[in-house]
Amino acid sequence: MKNLLILSLIVLLSSCKNENSKVVKPEVKSETISLSANDIVNKSIEVSGGDRFTRSSLKFEFRDTYYQALRKNHEFLLVRILAKDGDSIFDMLSNVGFERYHNEEFVKLEDSIANRYSASVNSVHYFSVLPYGLNDKAVNKTLLGYETIKGKDYHKIQVTFDEEGGGEDYDDVFVYWIDKEGFKVDYLAYSYKEKDGLGMRFREAYNERYVNGLRFVDYNNFKTEDKTISLEELGQTFEANKLDLLSKIVLENVQVELVNL
After folding, report:
1. Spatial separation of the C-alpha atoms in residues 152 and 136, rounded to whole Å
2. Which InterPro entries does its entry note (predicted)?
3. What is the pLDDT of residues 101-145, one digit of tens each?
4. Which CATH architecture has domain 2-259?
5. I need a surface site. Which of 146, 224, 228, 238 has the fewest CB within 10 A?
6. Whole-angstrom distance, CA of residue 243 vs CA of residue 111
């Protein structure tokens, strides 16, 4: 298993092509005809980078931790490295599973612990490239309607996951607010299970930048203590300035190389 994962990493890295030329942002005009949830998500993925996501090597830092994502068609390798004072933890999640190494030594984990670490690695990578990933087989999309936030009109789309293929947190529910003009994700919210019920978060995108044709944003991460508010109402709750800023989600030193197919 170790040799297979390392070989996959070497093959993907060796096939990377650095394209540093200036990339023109793709433009998609709004449609006057009715669009389905799939249509809207497809357009959002297109303006955010399109098929470049499926042939990319990404590197970034998040909260003093190093991440790398290698994607080539339907193959992927998601990496997290925690290093401090000469000590390192190396986590790898790929098509063939999850593995952890401590200072290059393989660490055998109980399935429950491995699943927890796997979900943690996947979560950071998942948020880093949204809306890429919203067309996965286990994803279900529903157009809830339209909403106006800060004077802009948005498609409002709910996302749920099938249990099979939906990961450890398959029962999480997401809502995305996608700009009706530019088809970019400006806001998202999600609910997740806590010991005493459901937790909810609302994120506001900011600091948009394109790196080698892929769109990246940072987020203001909000919470609410009001348990009577539903997930779908968080957009208007934010509009009314009734959410509390919990943290900032900031990706640093983002680098992108494109993989030759």
Report:
1. 28
2. DUF6503
3. 998 899 999 988 999 999 999 999 999 999 999 998 899 999 999
4. Clam (2.50)
5. 228
6. 37
